[in-house]
Amino acid sequence: MDFLSNFLMDFVKQLQSPTLSFLIGGMVIAACGSQLQIPESICKIIVFMLLTKIGLTGGMAIRNSNLTEMVLPALFSVAIGILIVFIARYTLARMPKVKTVDAIATGGLFGAVSGSTMAAALTLLEEQKIPYEAWAGALYPFMDIPALVTAIVVANIYLNKKKRKEAAFASAQGAYSKQPVAAGDYSSSSDYPSSRREYAQQESGDHRVKIWPIVEESLQGPALSAMLLGVALGLFARPESVYEGFYDPLFRGLLSILMLVMGMEAWSRISELRKVAQWYVVYSIVAPLAHGFIAFGLGMIAHYATGFSMGGVVVLAVIAASSSDISGPPTLRAGIPSANPSAYIGASTAIGTPVAIGIAIPLFLGLAQTIGG
Amino acid sequence: MDFLSNFLMDFVKQLQSPTLSFLIGGMVIAACGSQLQIPESICKIIVFMLLTKIGLTGGMAIRNSNLTEMVLPALFSVAIGILIVFIARYTLARMPKVKTVDAIATGGLFGAVSGSTMAAALTLLEEQKIPYEAWAGALYPFMDIPALVTAIVVANIYLNKKKRKEAAFASAQGAYSKQPVAAGDYSSSSDYPSSRREYAQQESGDHRVKIWPIVEESLQGPALSAMLLGVALGLFARPESVYEGFYDPLFRGLLSILMLVMGMEAWSRISELRKVAQWYVVYSIVAPLAHGFIAFGLGMIAHYATGFSMGGVVVLAVIAASSSDISGPPTLRAGIPSANPSAYIGASTAIGTPVAIGIAIPLFLGLAQTIGG
Amino acid sequence: MDFLSNFLMDFVKQLQSPTLSFLIGGMVIAACGSQLQIPESICKIIVFMLLTKIGLTGGMAIRNSNLTEMVLPALFSVAIGILIVFIARYTLARMPKVKTVDAIATGGLFGAVSGSTMAAALTLLEEQKIPYEAWAGALYPFMDIPALVTAIVVANIYLNKKKRKEAAFASAQGAYSKQPVAAGDYSSSSDYPSSRREYAQQESGDHRVKIWPIVEESLQGPALSAMLLGVALGLFARPESVYEGFYDPLFRGLLSILMLVMGMEAWSRISELRKVAQWYVVYSIVAPLAHGFIAFGLGMIAHYATGFSMGGVVVLAVIAASSSDISGPPTLRAGIPSANPSAYIGASTAIGTPVAIGIAIPLFLGLAQTIGG
Amino acid sequence: MTQKACKLIIVTEKVLQNKITQIIDAAGATGYTVVSAGGRGSRNVRSSGQPNVSDTYSNIKIEVLTIDRELALKIADEVAEQFFDNYSGISYISDAEVLHAHQF
Amino acid sequence: MTQKACKLIIVTEKVLQNKITQIIDAAGATGYTVVSAGGRGSRNVRSSGQPNVSDTYSNIKIEVLTIDRELALKIADEVAEQFFDNYSGISYISDAEVLHAHQF
Amino acid sequence: MTQKACKLIIVTEKVLQNKITQIIDAAGATGYTVVSAGGRGSRNVRSSGQPNVSDTYSNIKIEVLTIDRELALKIADEVAEQFFDNYSGISYISDAEVLHAHQF
Ligand SMILES: Nc1ncnc2c1ncn2[C@@H]1O[C@H](COP(=O)(O)O)[C@@H](O)[C@H]1O
Ligand SMILES: Nc1ncnc2c1ncn2[C@@H]1O[C@H](COP(=O)(O)O)[C@@H](O)[C@H]1O
Ligand SMILES: Nc1ncnc2c1ncn2[C@@H]1O[C@H](COP(=O)(O)O)[C@@H](O)[C@H]1O
Ligand code: NA
Ligand code: NA
Ligand code: NA
After folding, report:
1. Which domain of life, per UniProt (chains A, B, C) (predicted)?
2. What is the ipTM, given to two decimal places?
3. How many domains does chain E have?
4. Interface of B with D in 156-215 (CB under 8 A)
């Protein structure tokens, strides 16, 4: 009882933190119809600076770290990223009115990681003075990439199975469509083939999806490449002066602006969710918390096994709870073109992300404090 | 004599402040034909940050304030906002070659408030170490909205009166124009009705302008909603860490960039003024000072009645002297579409704002120091 | 031996500085195909802030300086700017497959100054605690403008000579092309003159290029006008508060982002160089160092003659080694339209600038330390 | 299968974007495409109130493919009637042929 | 010397830009022009995943001048076949007359 | 009342914008519309010198509605003569019908 009331008070207190209150503020002003716009170029540079800073922190930390400590958490990250996709495959995809590819893509997005959600968690950990491994941010790619790769591979295996026959048929048509069209008579209406082939069918010849291009595309995305750049500079250069005078002090303020944008974005996406099956709403409320608990559990194993800090456990839980907002969507769009982005982006942006930031972060923080303190 | 020379020396010193010198610098480099451009996205984010900061200051102050102190200044703000429109209605509008609607819209713009001018005043007050109520910035909407609403209502009442007959005629024509146009013959020139109806005539049916939509539109504008967001966060959240580490320290520097832009903008708008009656020039030099003096007087009443600080009196005078630059123009454009924006925006941007910042701010500051010291 | 190994260790250490490591990082991530983009509006505002800051530093310094000290370095700057163009005229232009106008334009660009390269040098000087005259940044226009003017004048003299005959012929044709074209018959194909005149030929009537418009265009460019604005404000206003609270503390961090962009840009331009003669590659590796050594030598003369500091000598060498990236290209494009920008921009951006920043800066810094220490 | 269509182009001030796209939707067109534009016209009824010193365009160009000329004219007429007294703007039509049996 | 040409216009999602310009190049067109666009269509197969709250457009409009109708149709066909099942997009053609003997 | 018109389209490098709009004004056209564009051409006389790594377009597309073909050709001719030797660019014309008796 006392525990619960403490927990709730802590919870409210954390909602008052700059990070979460700007998120809520964004939702509120969007709901009020505010015309406020944060230009896209500003959002881009903020994301760049936040992830470069996280990377720099990680890179400078790794220099003096015992990297064997990172092995177990990194392995768990990979496992969680893959697991989340299969959870979606065998829960969300089974729901009525939910298309299987849409569900797999949604799983991929929820398995992937949001840099801004992670930044919010790191900030709150610092505010609460809970220590965490400085390399914790570097777990990001270990969960992000496996989730996206798994989703794309699973979706294409599913599509290949389902479409083997149709694909054979369509490829015959495709060849036909390449024969020269009779031209010259401008007003005559030529007869166009109306059938088209599934994009993934190009792979259908060898019945295999190539994994490396997906990994490469993820690493080249703006979020991950900013972070890896930061790690590399932190490792091999001496960025301390700009880190201390620029990237670090501006971190929280820039994050508050980004949170505002994410709140506004969440609100404006809610209407899109109406067009898709209501199970997406259920999934995007439950999934972040479920994924977070799984990761929290695995993190506790690492805590007892290799001394992974409680702060690190929270980071692991939050990146599991988060869903990708920057590099995930385009990667999935290209890798599973037949999946409906309204479904997966809507679910993630409108509900998944606010739940991850506004509920999962304070929840796992509180849990860590209760267990750890 | 001594007083005047002191005053003049103070004046020059204030022109040397970063805020005012960047404004003048902007005018000078624009006059020299500089190709320097500050991207629009940067201006937008600067305005957002300045007004959020002012809002945060206000919100955090209100938490520990006796809000009854705010009642009188807020009432005066409303009164001044309305009064300024009527002043324009009965002075500028009576001048030869000045169209009445244009004059009313100009009055509305000069009655409304410029967030950046206010930011400049607050910065100079701080530099001069003159204390003011932290909630003083929150007077903004109390003057801004009444001025815009009054201008739109007065203009539409005027237009309704004037156009009742024409409107009846035009609405008959309007109905006619909706009958289907004979199509099919591509080269024949169909006969289009060339008459159009006044947009405001849509209101002419019930002879009333709806006030709430105008208020709503003002509140939803980017400037006011950033400020109100700041107030709300200052009140209900704990934004101290980002306030002290981000919004507050960047305030002056960002303001200097915005002042530069406003100086450049002022210069480049001057040519537009040539197209409108020269009375606009007279009005936009005199009005900011006149409005400022009225507000200063009312502020002094509040000073003696309820202990409103001298710094607060300066803020009140400056927001009266200022004319809106961000949310005012589009609101007026939509509310009084037949008014010529070259007239009101030109008058405000090219002359009104430089006068308010470059003359009114140092003037009222000096006055307050002389009276208060 | 010991000297060399010391020098090399210093060199590597300087490559680890934030400035140079972000440059290298940019090249690496571009080579890895990163999708990271720094929005153009961000680059513009960074350039503005860096050059305003350099200007402010200079302007505030000049207030308390003995300006006669600046005379010799300024004269040397002018001389170097002019000399560099003639070097290109009599070396690069003589190479096989190199068009003379292209070579002259390349010389102009390498003679002109890059604000960001200069900013990098100033930052490294500060990190190494090597003192330099605060007005050193103000040498920029003294080298930049003469180089651009010389290149345009030399190119047009060359073109006038070469084309006197062709020009006469073309201008006859040009007059012919102005006679009214028979219209009315929409489907008939009118006969267009296919010959066109060299743009510079408009000047060929009086056989003289006007110099003042080129100077004016340089001064009005975004980089130089930001810097001159800073100088003026530093001289005549009191910008200390924004300088210390905004422009100065953000300088290094913003520079690191700009260096990243320049690294990415350099890499992505390399392919363009393949289209032009390979002598451009040789030139753009050798020229920055050669120009730097000439300037270093002249700087040493000023060092012994008038006490020009060793830090100032480094600045002089680096601005000589640098090639213009912002205002130079458009000025040359307009002044020598027949020169191929792929050649000069490619040479400068892809090789010249990385060499100037990554090799020339640490080289001349090391040299100054060795000589001076 | 190609399909003859009429293409209506409206160039006007950015502030009108929402109001005009509502008219287009209400008229029953199947879609529209909007592009940022700058420009200068003969009437210049009203200047746009956009900042001069920044790098943005203050006009928009809206293109609407309609199945027949009548619908295009209806939209253009409505837009002109409501706005072109007080706002800058021009509209014109040209022919187009929509490909691939797009449901438009 | 003017030259009759065919102008193909494709309006579709920005993410496809690179893939479509590759198709255009491969088909042998001499060039293309791309413009940022916003819009609304009838099919709305997929929404773009672009942020709603920012000020950018998420579509592109690509214009290709081709020497004959056949090439335009070939490009449009290829694009529609590969993408228009899963992405928003429309394509149409109109006539144009290229001036000045531009090698296109 | 609709009015037959000629639409001239010029796609060229952004640096020429001011110079070309001066030519258009001087030639007596009543207006023009400018749009930011990217592109690739066959001639690529000169690359634009714009940054590759940023997200902006370095071309512009200018559209001029003219009352007759003659004026369009005059402008195109002048532009090509002054610039297209040294700058990338293409120009073409098509037909249009201006609506609502716009004074153009
Ligand atoms: N002759 C023209 N050719 C192309 N665009 C035009 C023309 N006249 C006007 N426009 C466009 O229409 C807008 C409004 O024109 P106006 O109402 O005449 O001021 C201008 O800003 C231009 O973008
Ligand atoms: N009738 C139309 N007129 C103009 N543009 C259209 C039209 N229909 C569709 N579009 C454009 O094509 C894009 C894709 O259309 P759709 O595939 O129908 O969703 C839209 O976002 C619009 O930009
Ligand atoms: N065939 C084409 N179709 C559409 N746009 C073109 C074409 N050719 C050239 N352009 C445009 O014109 C610009 C200059 O072309 P060019 O002078 O051939 O390099 C290119 O950057 C394109 O934007
Ligand atoms: Na996740
Ligand atoms: Na006011
Ligand atoms: Na140089």
Report:
1. Bacteria
2. 0.88
3. 1
4. 174, 177, 180-181, 183-184, 186, 190, 192-193, 196-199
